[in-house]
Write a structure and sequence with these properties.
The protein is mostly helical. It is 62% helix and 6% strand. The model has no long low-confidence stretch (mean pLDDT 87).
């Protein structure tokens, strides 16, 4: 995560005030049902986690109450997307793992999202598409690091 000096920040650009609403619109316009959005989020959180993921950890990462995460996990297990397993570091803990079907479903979601991206940006140049995609991925990585740092600071 890089830091930017205040002289480099375009704080007076009104476009910066539109980031939150724009990200919200992106989420609402995703080409999937609300059920698929929840499953996609769960599968991605578990796949992208640096270590083992528990239901509590999933709830914290998703920003939802543990019962909400539990219900979503139960539905994913019932559909064969996830499985519960004993933690390798503490056999008393139960962790969540993607199944082969879960990996395939995650790939399907990604392919649908790529197709939607290509259709939405059809008037963009290939360079603009690639640049935006790289910056959006970078933003996601930096946002994850920022969020984890914020959580660690709250615990201290």
């Amino acid at each position: 995560m890089s830091s930017t000096s205040s002289s480099e920040r375009p704080s007076d650009d009104p476009a910066l005030d539109q980031i939150g609403p724009a990200l919200s619109r992106l989420r609402r316009r995703a080409p999937a049902s609300s059920k698929d959005l929840s499953r996609n989020l769960v599968l991605n959180v578990i796949a992208d986690a640096p270590g083992e993921t528990t239901v509590g950890g999933l709830a914290a990462e998703m920003g939802v109450a543990q019962p909400v995460a539990s219900r979503t996990v139960a539905a994913c297990i019932e559909d064969g997307l996830l499985r519960r397993a004993a933690s390798q570091s503490d056999g008393r803990r139960t962790v969540l793992e993607l199944t082969e079907h879960g990996e395939a479903e995650r790939d399907r979601f990604a392919a649908e999202q790529r197709e939607a991206f290509l259709e939405i940006t059809v008037a963009w140049s290939p360079r603009e598409r690639t640049q935006f995609a790289r910056l959006l991925v970078r933003y996601g990585v930096d946002a994850t690091a920022w969020s984890r740092n914020q959580a660690a600071n709250r615990r201290d």
